[in-house]
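Can't paste images in this forum, so I'm doing it all in text. The chain is below; anyone willing to post the predicted structure tokens underneath?
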Amino acid sequence: MDARKTAHLGELMRERGHAKAAAEEYGRARDRVGDKYESISNKYALALLELKRVDEAEQVLQSALHLHPASPSMHVHLGRIYLYRKQFEKARRAYLDALASDPFDEEIHLSLLRIESVLGAKALAQRARSASIVLTGLSADKVDRIANALGKTEGELAQVGLPAEETDGSPGTGGTPKGSLPADGGRP
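Text version of the structure:
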């Protein structure tokens, strides 16, 4: 089976909640094409994160970034790993690299708010807070609560979303404020 079909099978497995099977199929596809295709490497890393295979996911992302250095989604996923590990300087670098390519992603600004707050960079934290408020449409208090919760649980590694009580609750919002982008920025 060619890499495209194998990756498609991985996508079907992931959609059906079979993370282990998805990781195996994405891994097979990546074995065939290496890091040539950003989407395959990225989806493989996400599947690994769902399985809590964080070190492997980090290796996949680092390897793929050599060919795709401007990929905001790969930088965000790497930032999630570093934020979870409390490697705040590395997380900052990853999110700033993502920001350079995707300045409208809510997760990037919320994560930078968390990082800059922890590192004591008050002016940078305020800049990230202001951007988060504009992008999410949430109050400063809600933005601060969401940012403070980032990186504290493994569940956030593969998918970051806004808590249900912070959204308008209408169908189709996908756990984000009405009118905003998905919390993963539409990343695969």
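The CA atoms of residues 48 and 57 lie 6 Å apart. The chain has nine helices and no strands.
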